[in-house]
Amino acid sequence: MNNKIYLKVNTDLTASPQVLSWFEQINQPPILDQEIWWQCQTLLIEGFTNIVEHAHKNLPTETPIEIEAVRLDKYIEIYIRSQGQPFDLEQKLQQISEFEENQQERGRGLKIMSAIADKLSYEQTVDNRYCLFISKYY
After folding, report:
1. How many whole angstroms separate alpha carbon 99 and alpha carbon 112?
2. Which of 4, 106, 123, 128 has its CA at 20 to 30 Å from residue 88's CA atom?
3. Measured distance CA(55)–CA(60) in Å, rounded
4. CB within 8 A of 59, min separation 6: which ones?
5. Residue 78: helix, strand or coil by DSSP?
């Protein structure tokens, strides 16, 4: 199995329902473990929200965010490409306190993503954009 889908949206949190609806295509045939599918949806929407709220916070709403999802035999890969600022994901994850100690509103999404993703990275691409890469086995 190799299913690939692509979506381009504006930097706007109101696009979240559209992003989740688009992502449903990748769940055909449905992943048998509902919890894994819920985790994939959570990873996607947390990643999208972080790009809108942080990477693109000073950019116009028209700035595109490109999302690609690929379903392979045993895992799903999600690529969220943005035009934001450099960001050291590993360093940020080390700076954020654990869930129990984290009373702040910010930063928990990254910890959640780190906890449920099998692979998580944020790297510069050859065209001077950035790509949030997420991989989840099912």
Report:
1. 9
2. 4
3. 12
4. 11, 83, 84
5. strand
Phi, psi of 78 (to 5 degrees): -125, 130
* pLDDT tens column, 5-39: 999 999 999 999 999 999 999 999 999 999 999 99
**Over the stretch 33-59, which tens digit does the pLDDT of each residue have?**
999 999 999 999 999 999 999 899 999
> What does the angle CA 48 – CA 54 – CA 59 come to, to the nearest 5 degrees?
95
- Residues 6 or more apart in contact with residue 15 via CB below 8 angstroms: 9, 48
Cα distance between residue 122 and residue 100, in whole Å: 25
∠ at Cα 25 (22, 30), nearest 5°? 135
Q: Rounded to two decimals, what is the model's pTM?
A: 0.90
3-state SS of 27-74 is HCCCCCCHHHHHHHHHHHHHHHHHHHHHHCCCCCCCCEEEEEEEECCC
- The dihedrals phi and psi of 42, each to the nearest 5 degrees, come to -65, -45
